[in-house]
Amino acid sequence: MNNAGRTTLVFLTGLGIGAVVAALVTPRSGEEMREWITDMVEQNSRVLRRKGGRSIKQLQMALSKGEGRIAEVLRSGKDALESVAAKLD
């Protein structure tokens, strides 16, 4: 699991623990509690969407770099193969 995955897992675990503790100790009514939970879910979902977007961008950059490296290795291999073939002729 990469660092972003660990961070997300820790964040979600903390969110769950915090929600449970808040539900147990708050003197709010059921309706107030539902509104609070809804607000917290909306706020945290925005954070997760931003982090998800960043993770996707990082993955796209890594794939792009990987494609470039693979193309370079293939070119080097082709050049080496052509060199060996030329020596055999």
Describe the structure.
With 89 residues, this protein is an all-alpha fold. Helix content is 92%, strand content 0%. The chain has one domain (3-88). The chain has helices at residues 3-25, 30-88. It is rod-shaped.
Structural topology:
Layout: H1 3-25, H2 30-88
Helix pairs in contact: 1-2
Order of helices and strands: HH
Radius of gyration in whole Å, from Cα?
Answer: 26 Å
How many extended strands? 0
User: Tally the helices: what do you get?
Assistant: 2
Give the quaternary arrangement of the chains.
single chain
N- to C-terminal distance: 51 Å
Descriptive keywords:
mainly alpha, 2 helices
What can be said about this structure in brief?
The protein has 89 residues and is mainly alpha-helical. Helix content is 92%, strand content 0%.
